[in-house]
Predict the structure.
Amino acid sequence: MGTETREVIELFIDERSVRVAPGASVAAAVMNAGKACRASVTGERRAALCGMGVCFECRVEIDGVLHERSCMIEVSEGMRVRTVDAG
Ligand code: FES
């Protein structure tokens, strides 16, 4: 009886199924999907910048929680991410 190791994680970004490697950050998954994270107050599309939790440019909604820093959160199976591109 071994421990099951997943080779891919399936999550949903703006309702689209995405498969990424375990251990990836949500920010990486969002960028890989070609999405922006959020919009600035002037409407510019923003994406991860520092990658270490300082700039807050990577904020997205994760499982209904607003303003999560996607660079600091690891992907998990079935996670639902909403970006500025969700419409
Ligand atoms: S990229 Fe800077 S806080 Fe996430």
In short: The pocket of FE2/S2 (inorganic) cluster is lined by residues 48-51, 53-58, 69, 71 (CB under 6 Å). DSSP finds one helix and seven strands in the chain. Helices lie at 26-32.
